[in-house]
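Re: that backbone. Tokens:
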């Protein structure tokens, strides 16, 4: 499953970069094309920051941070390569999205964004962003509801000492 999760990461990077290439060569900068009328448009912008353009101008941080996260995710995935499929897929999406935006930052010092929600005001984003958010949400779900339940079931109940004492008394009779 480890190899499959790496393939998922690579496919998400390729898909992200391919879509960005098409948008960059088909839609002029700041131009827009309706994709699903009144719902979603392809709007070509460049983002020098992170989400909502925060940390604009902090290129080195925005390059180093994903490298660290990707490295930690890769090591964690390898150490737990026989573990949960949910965990492996979630981290592969985070890695793929991180690499997709990292390529843009290193190559152009900005990220190509293109998905604009027309239903409500929301920052324009891209496939790499979707991969990171969905992967992070899946990983949180895994940690809380899968790994958290394993940890809770492995711990002795709060009444274990009292139960052991009662069992001892019963044995003495």
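Recovered sequence:
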């Amino acid at each position: 499953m480890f190899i499959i999760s790496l393939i998922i990461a690579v496919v998400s990077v390729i898909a992200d970069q391919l879509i960005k290439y098409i948008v960059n060569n088909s839609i002029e900068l700041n131009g827009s094309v309706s994709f699903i009328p009144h719902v979603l448009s392809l709007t070509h912008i460049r983002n020098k920051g992170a989400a909502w353009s925060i940390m604009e101008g902090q290129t080195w941080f925005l390059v180093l941070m994903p490298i660290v996260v990707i490295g930690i995710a890769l090591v964690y995935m390898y150490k737990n390569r026989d573990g949960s499929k949910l965990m492996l897929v979630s981290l592969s999406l985070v890695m793929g999205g991180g690499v997709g935006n990292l390529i843009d930052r290193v190559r152009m010092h900005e990220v190509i964004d293109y998905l604009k929600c027309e239903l409500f005001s929301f920052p324009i984003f891209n496939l790499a962003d979707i991969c990171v958010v969905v992967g992070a949400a899946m990983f949180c779900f895994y940690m809380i509801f899968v790994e958290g339940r394993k940890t809770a079931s492995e711990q002795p109940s709060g009444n274990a000492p009292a139960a052991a004492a009662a069992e001892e008394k019963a044995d003495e009779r």
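The chain has one domain: 2-172. Residues 2-172 form one domain.
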